[in-house]
Design brief:
The complex is a heterodimer of chains A (339) and B (301). With 339 residues, chain A is mostly helical. Chain A has a single domain, classed as MetI-like (MetI-like fold), CATH 1.10.3720. Chain A has a two-stranded antiparallel ribbon. In chain A, helix 5 crosses helix 8, helix 10 runs antiparallel to helix 13 and helix 12 packs antiparallel against helix 13. Chain B is an all-alpha fold and 301 residues long. In chain B, helix 6 packs across helix 9. Chain B has one domain: MetI-like (MetI-like fold). Chain B has 14 helices and no strands. Helix content of chain B is 70%, strand content 0%. The chains are: A mainly alpha (339), B mainly alpha (301).
């Protein structure tokens, strides 16, 4: 590979930076040299911006502008049917939101589903990563197999799980029936529906997180384990005293990513519902904030309110991120003291 | 193709291949997996693969059989009939075609944009560099919900509703890609190489073409695959921007099936199978590279 650079990087023909002969240069050549050096200086000065411009152009059009405009729209009454007809209402969309019991319901559901999907998922991922880190026959098979749910889309996975969780004919109730448990109405129960939705998230993301942990485990230097082993640490002690502390940044990273994902949870609860309607069940028992936003904007046609929900979600995310960060700092400090 | 990629995916110095020396401590404890390790991992594998296999089983049955207990555990004879109905009646054929286009263009564009910006952040000096990089990283935190309303207004204004570009362009805002390429190029592209090319009088375009792209190729392949999977499975924005009967992507068509567009459960499962199969095949072929890419991205991230 290195060889390739050396041959291809060498300029062909026009590498004129070094003078070829000691002759007096002609006027024409002087001029072209000046032009070349000027071009070179411009190139050096402006090429970074040229290289960045495609990203930032798209970012301005489809990232920053929508972000700010959402804030602007959240102060207006806007209907989906006539999006250009905006009426200023100040913070009314936000105050209405805080008075709406469905907002609080959606917030509560998002937090509950977020917890029961993220916590077991990351713990299991940690365990699986630990096992995958052993020297195994067919380790690549296990890794790829663990990642296949990640390749399955939200829509396809949820459609399958809807059938598996079917009340009368679903595989899961059939299996539970074999050990003497009566059919459970997964969709209509409060916590059963949230558990079912969480299980889809867990199924899709556990393997992915396991691979991220595995990558971090493999970059832990061997000497740490060796010295732990010499000190007489058992495998479990090694896991708790060497592996886990070294993984702390990665664990924090996955926590943040999973939290962001959980806050935005949308596809699973949407398709888990009958007719893929965004109510989140007959009694809104698994309506998340993402669904609530979609319902307000694209079913009730209130784009202004939808914008207000979007900004509220963002603020919640910022708070969660700040809490995450504070916990990480506290942990790091207590670690420092322990040493 | 696949063989050459395999050789290049692990970046210098990282042990991410089974060929690494066995992790054997000097205290004499080998870290080979035991019986229980295999048992648990096999259970995990079954848990991961079962819903997919069962999708195929359900797709090969008919609606009446799916409304009986016990549920079917083995394949029936209706697979091709159901696939055909899903292909035509549920618009899955068009959806697969559209999704292939969307995912390919999204991946190619993201890779190109990210490599250019990533190179600038990794190796060039310019004003505001750190601020802009921080800005890029910060945008990774912003949830897609936050831009949905104005984007909807925007595409309504441009009459892009139901047009594929409506779901392609937003994908080019690839903060993760820029960060990923930057992290890769910082260590994979020696400064001396860029400087040597500069001293030889190479212009930026030449440096990009002859130095940066060859060095970045492994990471570009990884980023391309990750973006492709992500674009293929993108859900929230496409179901707002596209419709079932117009120009659906796979996810839009599947949502249509979930809405009861076709009431036959076995056809719904056939649709889910059609929408998943291309990526599954890609996973069987490129599994190692994709796994390697995710693990690599994790260390950098």
């Amino acid at each position: 590979m290195v060889k390739q650079y050396e041959t291809t990087a060498a300029p062909r023909g026009e590498g004129a930076a070094a003078p070829r002969a000691v002759q007096e240069p002609s006027a024409k050549e002087l001029k072209s040299r000046a032009w070349r050096s000027r071009r070179y200086r411009w190139d050096m000065k402006f090429s970074p911006y040229a290289l960045l411009s495609p990203f930032f152009l798209f970012f301005l059009a489809f990232g920053l502008f929508p972000l700010l405009y959402t804030g602007w729209a959240s102060m207006h009454r806007v209907s989906l049917t006539a999006p250009n007809d905006m009426e200023w209402v100040g913070f009314r969309n936000f105050t209405r939101l805080l008075e709406d019991e469905f907002f609080w319901n959606a917030l509560k559901n998002t937090v509950t589903i977020g917890l029961i999907s993220t916590v077991p998922q990351l713990l299991m991922a940690l365990g699986i990563a630990h096992l995958l880190n052993y020297r195994l026959r067919g380790s690549w098979f296990f890794r790829v197999a663990a990642l296949t749910p990640y390749a399955t889309s939200v829509a396809a996975a949820t459609l399958v799980f809807v059938l598996l969780y079917g009340r009368d004919y679903g595989m899961i109730n059939w299996g539970l029936g074999q050990i003497g448990i009566d059919n459970i109405d997964w969709k209509n129960g409060d916590w059963t529906s949230q558990l079912a939705v969480s299980s889809i998230v867990i199924w899709r993301w556990t393997g992915y997180n396991a691979l991220i942990y595995l990558a971090a485990m493999q970059s832990i230097p061997n000497d740490l384990y060796e010295s732990a082993a010499i000190d007489g640490a058992s495998r479990w002690q090694q896991f708790f005293h060497v592996t886990l502390p070294s993984l702390r940044p990665t664990i924090l990273f996955t926590c943040v990513v999973s939290t962001i994902g959980a806050t935005q949870l949308f596809g699973e609860p949407l398709l888990f519902n009958d007719g893929a309607s965004p109510t989140g069940g007959s009694d809104h028992q698994f309506q998340t904030l993402g669904l609530y936003l979609y319902e307000q904007g694209w079913v009730n046609l209130h784009l202004g309110r939808a914008s207000a929900i979007a900004w509220t979600m963002f603020l919640i995310l910022l708070v969660v991120a700040a809490v995450n960060w504070a916990i990480a700092r506290r942990l790091r400090r207590s670690e420092g003291r322990a040493r | 193709m696949s063989a050459t990629v395999t050789d290049k995916v692990p970046p210098a110095g990282r042990r991410s291949r089974p060929a690494k020396p066995p992790r054997k401590s000097k205290a004499g404890k080998t870290l080979y997996g035991g019986k229980w390790t295999y048992l648990v991992l096999i259970a995990v594998t079954v848990f991961s693969l079962f819903p997919l296999v069962w999708t195929a089983i359900a797709a090969s049955r008919n609606n009446t059989r799916l409304a009986q207990t016990p549920p079917p555990f083995w394949f029936g004879g209706n697979l091709f009939k159901n696939l055909e109905i899903a292909w035509t009646d549920a618009n899955m054929g068009a959806a697969l075609f559209n999704t292939t286009i969307v995912a390919s263009i999204s991946a190619a564009g993201t890779v190109l944009i990210s490599t250019l910006a990533g190179f600038a952040f990794a190796k060039l000096r310019f004003r505001w560099k750190n601020f802009l990089l921080f800005f890029v990283i910060a945008t990774m935190m912003v949830p897609p919900q936050l831009s949905v309303v104005p984007m909807y207004m925007l595409i309504a204004e441009l009459s892009w509703t139901d047009q594929l570009q409506a779901v392609i362009f937003p994908f080019f805002v690839a903060a993760f890609g820029v960060f990923f390429m930057r992290q890769y190029l910082v260590q994979a592209l020696p400064n001396e190489l860029v400087e040597a090319a500069r001293v030889d009088g190479a212009s930026s375009v030449r440096v990009l073409w002859h130095v940066v792209f060859p060095a970045a190729r492994p990471a570009m392949a990884v980023l391309g695959m990750l973006t492709f999977v992500q674009a293929w499975n993108d859900f929230f924005w496409p179901i707002i921007a596209l419709t079932q009967n117009g120009n659906p992507t796979v996810q839009v068509a599947l949502t249509g099936l979930g809405r009861g567009y076709i009431p036959d459960q076995s056809v719904i499962m056939a649709g889910a199978l059609l929408g998943t199969l291309p990526l599954l095949i890609a996973f069987v072929v490129f599994g190692k590279q994709i796994v390697g890419g995710i693990m690599q991205g994790a260390i950098k991230g």
